[in-house]
């Protein structure tokens, strides 16, 4: 008898009551506010999130996602909703279908006022400042009283057609900029009916996206982006953009104003604002030519496109995290971040999703070892052949378990297949293959230190580690009367749990020099499915100290995608710095340059010092006149924008008799690359001016020679062998990613 699709699934109370939520692992909460497929807008304000969609505004609790209130905006329609919020968060303003609406956030269900500024159902863009609301629609700009909604003044935008508008307002509220139909307008808000200037940025009648930063106005339309003097409208620089099909373009900028991002046709373009006419990098998010939204956060830029959340390295454009949310479809994305709730919010397809801010590849861990499934299964085969995995249990023959590529977002679920043949409790015989899932939360992993380059990963399983089984590839023959599918599941699950329970501890050798201590460490396991490149799915070992709090799920990019690399090591910045410090000291010790426990000394006995006695005018010669040392324990590092690890340390020198120390500040710029299958560190040294000094020529010669020897020591760099791994690729900064293949594989 062949059992087909014999998984047992019953609806839970939670699934019956959670009609407005999706099952999305590794998120804080999600909620469906609307069934819209149109654009959504979103504003956060401390404890609340406001969502504009489908002609309504929804007020949600920022921490829990609970829907608190809904404001059904005037006139039935399904149009986009634009929003702005007052500085104190007490008033929310909405623009939609030709209307501007004022809402008291403490009395959210009722509008304070609504004003129709356009008879047609056009989108309304708006911003606010103090007691004024500025709106634009259908070729006009409006100045409204924020308390009453009364129209104070109107500006007919000369030459503008009937397309959507984009607004930018100066921080002091004195100047409004409007972008529409290929034009940019500047309006002094105290003379609102007049235009200070109008700038043509495109001949086509497209919306012009605007961003104002540090007296510079950035404008983007169709195939062009401009850097304008915000006061005069003069063009400071221009950028040509190829393949700009989506409308409108989107803009974002780093807090320091040094890097601008342009979203265009499913791509992200980055330019450095001081070299605006040259593209720094361009990264494709999707082959579909759709709009891109941005949220810049520290060293990363979060991007949203057709229902996907992607995270890019801000300096290189490398995609370091990508995720979709099954159930929301492929729609436009809005994003915001709430500092009070420490959440990133993602809105698309009528859903709002809250999650912890996405981190870099290391995801909060100090060290990650990621291994593709093919080498992982080779290790399982070696354990099976060495009789360290069971071959038989309770009359049932067991084959070698193999980890399978399972399509799941749950990184705590590992699926494997195993061949079985035999009789179960004299009830039925089985022959074929079983697919089972292990709950990695029920697996205890411990790291045991054997030597500097040898560790053992010890794995212990709980009694009930199997979370699900699939019998669809199993032939079952009943010896007596048939039993139902649920009983078959129970018997076979019991057998597998017994088999796993008899394993005791499984030990995997790790021939790797770990840059973290195995003592007092936290160890985790994860399975990461790569939807784009299934063959790149992997199992990961994560190590951190006892205080490690992982911030996010692991990224599929822990192993470079579509490459020959089968294993990667990810090391966090702090761990790298400690590791480099240790490696530097080891190199110096090999050169016999350390003296004592605090300093290293270079040729201290070479230069005699002549010391004069001011009273007798006699000179005395001292054979050990110069002590030139580098302070141990004063090394500190940080990553530079070009991916180098910049390390600072102090060279101390003194006359032995006078015993006054002076300091040279040495800067090492350390680059990371692959060389001959090893991790190569290259050094670029520079020496700053010293603090203090000496008049003694012998001391000066000693310092000069010490600096030259230090330079010579590191001029060629040095290699760090990664035992068991043939290094093929090295990536930095933000982390060190060392990727390659297993030696002898």
Automatic annotation (TrEMBL):
<dbReference type="InterPro" id="IPR011047">
    <property type="entry name" value="Quinoprotein_ADH-like_sf"/>
</dbReference>
<protein>
    <recommendedName>
        <fullName>Pyrrolo-quinoline quinone repeat domain-containing protein</fullName>
    </recommendedName>
</protein>
<feature type="domain" description="Pyrrolo-quinoline quinone repeat">
    <location>
        <begin position="100"/>
        <end position="322"/>
    </location>
</feature>
<dbReference type="InterPro" id="IPR015943">
    <property type="entry name" value="WD40/YVTN_repeat-like_dom_sf"/>
</dbReference>
<dbReference type="Pfam" id="PF13360">
    <property type="entry name" value="PQQ_2"/>
</dbReference>
<dbReference type="InterPro" id="IPR002372">
    <property type="entry name" value="PQQ_rpt_dom"/>
</dbReference>
């Amino acid at each position: 008898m062949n059992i087909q699709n014999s998984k047992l699934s019953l609806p839970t109370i939670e699934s019956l009551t959670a009609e407005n939520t999706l099952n999305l692992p590794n998120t804080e909460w999600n909620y469906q506010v609307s069934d819209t497929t149109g654009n959504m807008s979103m504003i956060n304000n401390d404890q609340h999130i406001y969502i504009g969609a489908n002609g309504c505004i929804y007020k949600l609790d920022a921490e829990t996602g609970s829907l608190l209130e809904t404001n059904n905006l005037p006139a039935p329609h399904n149009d986009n909703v634009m929003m702005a919020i007052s500085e104190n968060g007490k008033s929310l303003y909405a623009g939609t279908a030709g209307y501007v609406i004022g809402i008291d956030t403490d009395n959210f269900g009722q509008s304070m006022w609504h004003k129709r500024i356009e008879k047609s159902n056009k989108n309304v863009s708006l911003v606010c400042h103090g007691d004024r609301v500025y709106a634009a629609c259908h070729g006009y700009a409006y100045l409204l009283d924020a308390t009453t909604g009364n129209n104070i003044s109107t500006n007919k935008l000369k030459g503008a057609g009937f397309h959507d508008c984009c607004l930018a307002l100066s921080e002091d509220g004195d100047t409004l900029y409007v972008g529409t139909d290929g034009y940019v307008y500047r309006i002094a808000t105290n003379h609102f009916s007049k235009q200070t200037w109008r700038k043509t940025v495109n001949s086509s009648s497209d919306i012009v996206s605007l961003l104002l930063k540090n007296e510079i106005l950035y404008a983007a339309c169709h195939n062009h982006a401009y850097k304008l003097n915000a006061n005069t409208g003069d063009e400071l620089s221009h950028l040509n953009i190829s393949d700009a099909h989506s409308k409108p373009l989107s803009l974002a900028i780093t807090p320091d104003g040094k890097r601008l991002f342009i979203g265009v046709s499913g791509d992200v373009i980055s330019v450095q604002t001081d070299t605006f006419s040259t593209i720094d990098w361009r990264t494709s998010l999707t082959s579909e030519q759709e709009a891109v939204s941005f949220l810049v956060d520290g060293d990363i830029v979060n991007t949203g496109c057709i229902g996907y959340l992607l995270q890019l390295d801000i300096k290189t454009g490398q995609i370091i995290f990508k995720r979709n949310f099954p159930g929301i479809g492929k729609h436009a994305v809005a994003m915001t971040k709430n500092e009070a709730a420490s959440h990133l919010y993602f809105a698309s397809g009528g859903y709002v999703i809250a999650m912890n801010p996405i981190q870099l590849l290391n995801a909060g861990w100090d060290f990650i070892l990621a291994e593709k499934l093919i080498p992982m299964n080779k290790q399982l085969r070696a354990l099976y052949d060495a009789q360290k995995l069971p071959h038989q249990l309770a009359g049932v023959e067991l084959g070698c378990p193999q980890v399978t590529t399972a399509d799941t977002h749950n990184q705590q679920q590992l699926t494997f297949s195993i061949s079985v043949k035999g009789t179960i409790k004299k009830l039925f015989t089985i022959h074929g293959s079983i697919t089972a899932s292990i709950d990695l939360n029920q697996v205890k992993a411990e790291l045991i230190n054997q030597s500097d380059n040898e560790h053992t990963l010890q794995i212990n399983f709980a009694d009930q580690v199997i979370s699900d089984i699939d019998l669809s590839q199993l032939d079952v023959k009943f010896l007596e009367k048939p039993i139902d599918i649920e009983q078959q599941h129970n018997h076979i699950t019991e057998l597998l749990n017994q088999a796993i329970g008899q394993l005791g501890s499984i030990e995997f050798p790790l021939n790797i020099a770990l840059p973290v201590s195995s003592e007092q460490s936290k160890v985790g396991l994860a399975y990461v499915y790569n939807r784009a490149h299934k063959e790149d799915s992997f199992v990961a070992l994560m190590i951190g100290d006892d205080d490690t709090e992982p911030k996010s799920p692991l990224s599929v990019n822990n192993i470079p995608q579509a490459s020959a690399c089968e294993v990667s090591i990810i090391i966090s910045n702090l761990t790298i710095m400690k590791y480099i410090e240790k490696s530097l000291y080891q190199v110096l010790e090999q050169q016999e340059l350390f003296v004592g426990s605090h300093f290293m000394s270079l040729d201290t006995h070479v230069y005699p010092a002549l010391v004069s006695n001011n009273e007798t005018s006699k000179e005395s010669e001292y054979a050990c006149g110069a002590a030139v040392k580098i302070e141990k324990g004063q090394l500190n590092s940080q990553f530079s924008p070009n991916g180098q690890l910049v390390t600072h340390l102090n060279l101390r020198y003194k006359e032995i008799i006078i015993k006054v120390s002076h300091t040279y500040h040495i800067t090492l710029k350390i680059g990371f690359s692959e060389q001959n299958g090893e991790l190569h560190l290259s050094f670029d040294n520079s020496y700053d001016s010293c603090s203090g000094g000496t008049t003694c020529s012998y001391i000066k010669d000693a310092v000069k020679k010490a600096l030259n020897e230090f330079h010579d020591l590191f001029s060629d760099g040095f290699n760090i062998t990664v035992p068991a791994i043939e290094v093929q690729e090295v990536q930095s900064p933000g982390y060190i990613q060392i990727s390659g293949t297993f030696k002898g594989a």
